[in-house]
């Protein structure tokens, strides 16, 4: 099975290094020197990692055969793909690979069906489940323990405790300001 582990960013310096957007919780395992990675587009690879280092909080990689800025810049936006045994599990107890979560049924804590996970969106601050509802619409569910209360791989389901408004239109008004449409806090129509 193949997993996207990083996306190549811009060139760094003149010796062929590139910045990478890491998309794995195990960069030391997946992005170490000597690792051979498939690419998307396939024409860019396979690529073998020659060196890796962290600079100003960013991972920088250099690939065998890429020795200058021009070669590095040509790889920009290329996805790096690792071959992973489908039976392999992440090291952490509450960690999952995307392929384990795709197609899980999503239900609320009281058993109400919400939909099916079709994609995991990896954002800088958190991951999101893209959940397709039975009517074909999509809802985005933050993959945080306050909302996703249980992942049950045996039952093939994710249990959520959504805040009001996340999966339905019953959002609570958080403030009385603008609640009556007048724009003032006391509803009298004047702001004095």
Kindly describe this structure.
Strand 11 (about 150) and strand 12 (about 155-160) form a beta hairpin. Helices cover about 5% and strands about 40% of the residues. The mean pLDDT is about 80. The longest helix is centred in the middle third of the chain and has 5 residues, at about 70-75. The strands form two sheets. It has a six-stranded antiparallel barrel with strand order 1-2-5-4-3-6. The protein has about 190 residues and is mainly beta.
Secondary structure tally, helices: 3
The SS-based structural class is mainly beta
Mean pLDDT: 82
Main pleated-sheet profile: 6 strands, antiparallel, barrel
Question: In angstroms, what separates the terminal alpha carbons?
Answer: 65 Å
Give the strand line-up of the largest sheet: 1-2-5-4-3-6
What is the helix/strand order? Answer: EEHEEEHEHEEEEEE
Approximate shape: elongated
- How much helicity do the residues have? under 10%
The count of β-strands is 12
Rg measurement, Å? 22 Å
Fraction in beta strands: 35-45%
Which runs of at least 5 residues are low in confidence (pLDDT < 50)?
Answer: none
